[in-house]
Amino acid sequence: MRGFWWPLLVVFLAGCGQEKKELRLLNWSDYMPKEVLQEFEKREGVRVVEDTYDSPEAMLSKLQAGGDSEYDVLITPDYTVGALARAGTLQELDRSKIPNLANLDPQFADPAYDPGARYSVAYQWGTTGLAYREDLVKGPVESWAVIFDPQQQVGSFLLLDEMREMVGAALKYRGQSVNTTDPAKLAEAQALLLEAKRRSQGFAGGTSIRDRLIGGDIAVGPAYSGDILAAQEENPQLKYVIPKEGATLWADCLVVLKKSPNHELAYRFINFLLEPEIAARISNSIGYATPVAAAMDKIEQKDNPLIYPSPEIRQRLELLADLGEGAEAFNRVWAEVKSR
Fold first, then answer.
1. 329, 335 in Cβ contact below 8 A?
2. What pTM was estimated for this model as a whole?
């Protein structure tokens, strides 16, 4: 009997030491071309399982419900990286396992949201401005006032279900930094958001706002630049603008979860996404800007200002910083806005 079980035990123990042949990815909705995932599967002989979310709050809920040990790679907003790292959720990156980091634009080598890029790798970047249906609005759309000033409302609208973006928009409208933690300024932003909420059709994720604009259910709404670029092909009446008060320039980031069952495969996946050909295929497909400088000669719309804003517009854009303990003040504002 012992002679029968021993070979099976050896096989079992050997299998336990092998890396699982499955990569689990948690990502924004509609944010990774299926053919890119299929290419990685073919190269590595693995299966990629992708789950999606529509808001950072939904993503955090997934992680808190056990996803921090189920997923290998997470694509997350820039301003969440610091908090996730401090909570012990992220693996500090072994840069030697990501040689294609050399392909990144230098501006992403030491970002304010993750000094030294210790935990994150930029995946895509873009802006958050105002999208609108040119045939449905009842006046010009050039300011956050179309949401925050009842006298300048130009049509029905949704609010973006994203705390930092919406609080930041209210702060920008008041001439403040999107990163201020001044209690008086945040109180003003809260009041603006509560008043806007009463006139709005509620909150929605970026893809939902895009779809509601296409369908004509709303006339205007805060939106991510890439969502609107893709939708303009379906409806040329859909327009996008950076409000005159300013807006955010953001990056979504690739991070490896500390409890990931497949660290080595996660590193290979990130390195794969930084290949110029792959990076270009992603950006050309989903309409956001690539941080991979080596891919720029393959980008089809590198001259499109909606994706790559002019220097003049860039001066009105601000990165969302990691606020550390100051983030709690934003959390309180957002909780109040969502609950009332």
1. no
2. 0.83
Write out pLDDT tens, residues 293-309.
999 999 999 999 999 99
Please provide the DSSP assignment of 268-303 as one string: HHHHHHTSHHHHHHHHHHH--B-SBGGGGGG-TTTT
Please state, in angstroms and rounded to a whole number, the distance separating the CA atoms of residues 324 and 73: 23
| Long-range contacts from 275-279, C-beta under 8 angstroms, 24+ separation | 275/100, 275/103, 276/103, 278/36, 278/39, 279/103
CB atoms within 10 A of CB 155: 16
d(CA 248, CA 314): 9
Compute the CA torsion angle 292, 172, 224, 117 (nearest 10 deg): 30
Closest CA to 72 of 270, 271, 263: 263
How confident is the model over 203-253, as pLDDT tens digits? 999 999 999 999 999 999 999 998 898 789 889 999 999 999 999 999 999
Q: What pLDDT shows up at residue 5?
A: 38
Tell the residue number behind the tokens 């990685």, with chain if given.
40
Q: How many other C-beta atoms can be found within 10 angstroms of the C-beta atom of residue 6?
A: 10
305 three-class SS: coil
